[in-house]
Design brief:
single chain, alpha/beta, Arc Repressor Mutant, subunit A, D-Maltodextrin-Binding Protein, domain 2, 4-stranded mixed β-sheet, 13 strands, rod-shaped
Amino acid sequence: MELRHLRYFVAVAEEENVTRAAARLHVSQPSLSRQIRDLEEELEVPLFDHGARSLKLTEAGRVFLTEATEVLERIRKAVETVQAAAGGSGGEIHVGFAPSLNVHILPDVLRRYQQAFPGVKVRLHDLSTREMLEGLHEGSLQAALMIKTSPDTEVDLIFQEVKKFAICVAVSPSHRLANVSTIEIDDILNQELVIYSRSEYPEYYEWLESLFSASGRQPKVVEEHEGSTSLIAALEAGQGVALVQEGFECFSGPRLIVRPLSPPPPPFIGGIAWRKDLKSPAAKNFIETVLLDKN
């Protein structure tokens, strides 16, 4: 049984006449009659009452008409979905992101992207840097909004800068540094430091090492955290201070005080990463939408 058999059967059933159905399908009447007979022989049941003046469906034929119509409709929708995906206006994409970095960027990007491509489902995944890199390399993510990592982790990836984030210090409102307008790097050396996990955020740990290497001293690291939520909780509990990016206060809210660091160290480079062999038109459209916010 082929799809044409279903299309032929539905046309004959709707027209109740082989001649009219043949004209509608642009096939010869003998050929259409033969296709209907072949279908009935394969199903081993009569679909039409061939003795009537017009072709009338048998009970089995009425059941088969319902099923055949649904199959053809599903196929039509499948074709539309595939064509939309091929054109970048349909389908689904998976995007990794760091919430604390993208609190300003992501809402506007999603709004504009969904307005332009309402047929695409964007699945967001809150992940660490390591998880985003793994997702990109494995193909489970089509793009990731993240901090720039070392070149050796991006061999098969493209990273495009979107925004530079100045470095700030986050403390609890009760911490003595909360009353200081600008915090100096020397002040951090005398504090207990709460950091992101070096295994989940290797680029953050490398940045810390380079920041303090010039002073010849290293801060006292007391805790490592796998995400911003637990890091915020530790700081709020008075466990120490943390070096974070500007805008972090929008993510932490009144739970923390965020102050600029002086003199300003090299910033975090935030952007979007994707595989060099990315094929998805929908993902490419998403990346282009993100890069419109580049500043």
